[in-house]
Amino acid sequence: MVKPKNYWYYEVSKTAPQYALRYLSEAWKRCFNRVSGQPKFKKKGRDDSFTLDGSISVGFNQIKLPRIGWIKTYEVLPDNVNPKSVTISKKAGRWFISFKIEKETQMTEKSVDVVGVDLGIKSLATLSTGEVFEGAKSYRKLEAKLSRLQYLNRHKTKSSRNWKKAQLKIAKLHSKIANIRKDALHKLTTYLAKNHSHIVIEDLNVSGMMSNHKLAKAIGSMGFYEFRRQLDYKCQLYGSSLTIVDRWFPSSKTCSRCGFVKESLSLSERVFKCEHCGFSCDRDLNASLNLAMAGSSSVSACGLDNADVARLKQE
Ligand SMILES: [Zn+2]
Q1: Which residues are registered as beta bridge partners of 43?
Q2: Helix, strand, or coil here: 144?
Q3: Which one is catalytic: 53, 109, 113, 118?
Q4: pLDDT average per 10 residues of sequence, the chain (315 residues)
Q5: For residue 254, how far is its CA from the centre of ligand 1 (angstroms)?
Q6: Best exposed site among 47, 114, 178, 239 by fewest CB in 10 Å?
Q7: CA 284 to CA 213: how far, in whole Å?
């Protein structure tokens, strides 16, 4: 029914609608399995993307696509790769092309054996080695600029030429802020996977955490799942292992020196003080030390064994 009514159907490669239908079927499957909600309709100008397959060849800084032909890329492409399909997307006026490639594990020399990582409110991450990743700060200024831009353009008529111009400006600023955050997260996960043979992180209750706005901002919309996803593949790439500790493990309430567990610890308490042995240190550092300890024994303190970890990873 679609084809005769929509002439554009014949202008594009036939794989673009095929993949769209395939993605739709996957989305419905996820919905029926109660993994996610109902798929939403696509809308022009929002998450624009399509997938192509067929004969694709990759050059130094160009790529040949079916129906479209050679396209120059800004970035230098990896050599000796043969992608089966590519996805082209448009974001804030820029075009992106992405494809999967296979990579062998590159073992790097690890300076630290076990490291615990605590994702925090004030800083992006605190490692049990004492290192602190502050995270990107520079985007705060951009956020002020963004809200000003949104305020100034609040009266523009929707879909008008000027509205579209303003929308593009806003979208560009949005993606700039997202990129700054992304960059900080990538730097952190690469550093962890390259220099530590065993990484222990906590499984965070993200939906519960989002009720706390400060936390929501620090780990952000991209969130904990993106952090875990990056660590997961980078650990495979650099030959290190990842342990995810159960979310009910009291990493911040436990004393890392004597093992005493506090009754309660409010978010405003930045320094951990043990009533039992008198130990005191930075709250996030204490939590990361506990995570490192939980990970160094094969069965962690909360009774999570490797099978559980594997299951959690798959989830
Ligand atoms: Zn103690």
Answers
A1: 46
A2: helix
A3: 118
A4: 82 88 94 90 87 92 92 92 93 92 89 88 84 80 90 90 92 89 90 94 64 54 77 93 86 88 82 89 90 70 44 46
A5: 8
A6: 47
A7: 18
Distance 251 CA to ligand 1 centre (A): 13
Whether the predicted model's global pTM rises above the 0.85 cut: no
Q: Is 48 a catalytic site residue?
A: no
Joined tokens for residue 67: 């129906």
Residue 138 CB neighbours (<10 A): 9
280 Cα: distance to centroid of ligand 1 (angstroms): 8
Joined together, the tokens standing for residue 177 give: 């802020």
- What are the structural domain ranges in the chain? 2-98, 112-136+184-314
Taking the C-alpha atoms of residue 285 and residue 31, their distance in angstroms, rounded to an integer, is 40
Please state whether beta strands 241-245 and 196-202 pair in parallel, antiparallel, or not at all (unpaired).
Answer: parallel
- The residues near 209 (Cβ < 8 Å, ≥ 6 apart) are 215, 216, 219, 224
Task: Give the side-chain half-sphere CA count within 13 A for 101.
Answer: 12
Q: Is 47 a catalytic residue?
A: no
Compute the distance from residue 26 Cα to the ligand 1 centre, in Å: 50
The separation between the first and the last C-alpha atoms of the chain, rounded to the nearest angstrom, is 38
Residue for token digits 């396209």? 71
- Which amino acid type is present at position 16? A
Q: Choose the catalytic residue: 284, 305, 308, 315.
A: 284
Q: Is 202 tagged catalytic?
A: yes
